[in-house]
Amino acid sequence: MSWLTDAIFNWFRELLIDGITANFTGMFNYLNDEINNIAGQVGATPQGWNANIFNLVRTLSETVVLPVAGMILTFILTYELITMVIEKNNMHDFDTFIIFKWIFKTFCAVYILTNTFNLVMFVFGLAQNVVNNSAGIIAGSLDMDVALANLADQLAAMGTGELIGLYLESAILRLVMKAISLCVFIIIFGRMIEIYLVISVAPIPFSTMVNREWGNIGNSYLKSLFALAFQGFLIMVCVAIYAVLLQGITASSNIHAAVWGCAGYTLLLAMMLFKSGSLSKAIFSAH
Questions:
Q1: Which H or E run includes 55?
Q2: Is the per-residue pLDDT at 85 higher than 60?
Q3: Three-state secondary structure readout of 138-180
């Protein structure tokens, strides 16, 4: 009967080893997919990410927001003309040059307002170029061959009790990884929704840019655009650092340390992605 007991025991060990290997392989493949998915998401412009949403936002902006922006621009330019005229000693020192100056400012203001979305897309196109050029940094992502090179030998040397513990550990961490990845998904998609919300009202702050008193509204808005656009680059840097850190720990001879290290670095990635928005706004002084 000992041969039957040994056969069942060996079958159980092989089942555990196969299960642990499957958990590790699935976890590392999932990390690879998430890394590549993040690179693809942040490298897209608002128009390229979802053309239907972009067209909807643009239509709303041009049909609903743009008329309001035109009224604001008319008020600002009229107020500025009156101010320019009366500030010269109630027209006693009137200079015709101020009229040409006002006409030039009006032309610039109307040009900016009528090309609002072109200017917005230029900002995001510039950021996309930077992000795409940096995409090669994380092209290697996680090397599974290195991560799993000695896994079979290490598992074969473990006792049955340790294998059971490692199997439960790897199964739980695989679920934890997916939960953290869900947080990353929320961050990436939340950023894109924020971009659509911000560009939907673009004509209003752009209508104030040529005025000295009101221009801070447009300048602050432009800073926020650059902050949102280049947040994608900061996200790429975070992912690149994350991939390099994983390369270092997956070659470890200690399986437990490698697993918990992957989980810790993934949690750290999620935290840094949450912080990337405020960091980008701080860099561009956008409030």
A1: helix 51-60
A2: yes
A3: HCCCCCHHHHCCCHHHHHHCCCHHHHHHHHHHHHHHHHHHHHH
Q: What does the block give as tokens for 158?
A: 């473990």
Query: Global pTM?
Result: 0.77
Instruction: Extract the tokens encoding 114.
Output: 């009528």
Q: How far is CA 152 from CA 8, 32, 253, in A?
A: 20, 21, 12
DSSP-derived secondary structure letter, 286: -
Contact status, residue 70 vs residue 207, Cβ threshold 8 Å: yes
Q: Which pLDDT does position 92 carry in this prediction?
A: 58
Q: Give, as one character, the DSSP assignment of residue 212.
A: T
Non-local CB neighbours of 94 within 8 Å, separated by 6+ positions:
85, 88
Residue type, 82: I
Percent of the chain scored above 90 by pLDDT?
Answer: 2
**140-173 burial, b for 16+ CB within 10 Å, e for fewer?**
ebbbeeebeeebeeebeebeeeebbebbebbbeb
Question: 244 or 144: which carries more pLDDT confidence?
Answer: 244
Average pLDDT, stretch 124-136? Answer: 79
136 pLDDT tier (thresholds 50, 70, 90): low
Residue 202, Ramachandran bin (φ over 0: left; ψ between -120 and 50: alpha; else beta): alpha
DSSP string, 98-131: HHHHHHHHHHHHHHHHHTHHHHHHHHHHHHHHHH
Q: Which residue pairs, CB below 8 angstroms and at least 24 apart, start in 268-273?
A: 268/242, 269/180, 269/184, 269/238, 269/239, 269/242, 270/180, 270/183, 270/184, 270/187, 272/238, 273/184, 273/187, 273/188, 273/235, 273/238
**What value does the mean pLDDT of the chain take?**
77
Find where tokens 């975070």 sit. 238
**Predicted local distance difference test score (pLDDT) of residue 208:** 87
